Protein 1
Amino acid sequence: MDRAIAPPARVVLTGSGGFVGATLVARLPDPVRLHLSRASWREAIAGTDFRTSTVIHLAARVHDPHGREEDFERDNVEKTAVLAEAAAAGGAARFVFASTVKVHGEETREAPFRPDSPPAPADAYARSKWRAEDRLDEISARTGLHVVVVRMPLVYGPGVGGNFASLLRLADSGAWLPFASIRNRRSLVHVADLAEALLLAATHPQAAGRDYIAAHPESVSTPALVAGIRSALGRPARLFPAPPAVLEIAAAAAGMRERMRRLTRSLEADSSTLVDELGWSPRRALAQGLVDTVAQWRGSRP
């Protein structure tokens, strides 16, 4: 990276083994890696020295179609609250929480979501993230812990998994896809740009107590995204028109309604508050970001 944001002197990091965490670790000199996926997670928190540290909390239950509400509650709400309480009691300087734009809902129609948009979480993951944010507000008000929330849309970049990896596999199939008539708008953020946003949230004096959204200011439609991925793969676009409503009906009959709606509907997020207040400047253009993502994805396959 050609522009360095100096990290905090001491960072306690959760989720260091994940997609975003691995990118952030490369920017941190010697973070304390706190693992919350083990049965002994309470003991791990209790044994951590939080004095003067900045906690960056990335660990979460995310892609789990079979996860129960109580699983998300434990992993995304309870663990966050216990961690924040310990950080406050232990003298942490700041607590940065990675959240999701999905706390505002699954779809935008006329305007992008902003940090002050009303909450409307629609699934167990988004509900748990919103409840975690609410718990953090209460803990911050009671203890004085400086909390910063960074909500993100779909994150992509080299090493990506989850829904974006599924889209890579679909694009690489070479099959003709019925997306040409879709006129939606989706926000994305490159993982390297997101790492910079998290570092700003961890260090900028103005960030304490604020909520932000980290999304590239230029949204993209599904057909443009698939065409961009296929271009990076060296494939023709191969898109044909089909009414989005028909695609949704067919997907619903196959038990894939929500997956299709992520391709047909819009989900835009406004990052102007992060740009204006903290000076965040996402610098990864989509075309080059897709080239880098595809190159790594191809190289990682057996």
Protein 2
Amino acid sequence: MNNNLNFTGRSLYDLDSYTIEEIETIFETAKVMKEINKRDYKKIPTLRGKTIATLFFEESTRTRISFELAAKRLSADVISFSSIGSSVKKGESLQDTVYTLNAMGIDLYVVRHSSPGVPQLVYKYSQKPVLNAGDGRHSHPTQALLDMFSIWERKGSLKDLKITIVGDILHSRVVRSNLIGMSKMGAKVTVCGPRTLMPPKVEKVYGAKSEYDLYKAIDGADVIMALRIQLERQSEGLFPGLNEYSQRYGLSKEVLKYTKEDVLIMHPGPMNRGIEILPEVADSKHSIIIEQVTNGVAIRMALLFLILGGKAN
């Protein structure tokens, strides 16, 4: 790990602006944070006196809790903002919301919004570092980092690993960030799903292989990640009935027979058990789904620590 890298004051909109060395430094820092989270007393005073605002204009219990827990474990103060019941509902603009919060002395913003590009706008109005917690269908870089860290920790590296991602590729911001990050770290990524849920030019844009047959996609895979099927898409006619989808693309015990003995099974959550992944797989020895949740806190602690002035050592 290069201790001379400087993360202080940086924003994270997506992984394209971070180098391999910087991502590895985040992973090494997350390892330390994970050890802290195993202690009986899990709090350290590193960010005492810092104030972090979580701006969630879109609901997400898991991501919000993970960020807020990460901040509190580092002894930062947290202001939790939700558009529900806020002045935004009364017509206040994003600009005025950020100006108001900035006047309270915010040091870093965590932003989730249904529209791409809002994290960049928050930086424009605040001039404070911003972590993107999901912007529309565009990106979700901290989820990708925790996914990659979970693989890196188990396999030692992502280089030359075959990673297969199965599900609604077209609408997933998690996939986009993972494709950028995993490819950058040297993994060979295959995306798989119904044709109606696959974006065009995946290979040209991201260097990933497209496959529509699950068994071909998982052949030789070191890691298989199932994505949540967005049930609202069924009304749009973009995929067949849930039973048919589960039979063709669901990860089942039968599917595991065609995988490597040491394959890792992942899911960014929340899961639709019995649809994209069956309980027998989600709870199997191959699954690191719960570990992903644990690693999410460690990754977010690492980012807050590095960006708000901690040193990588």
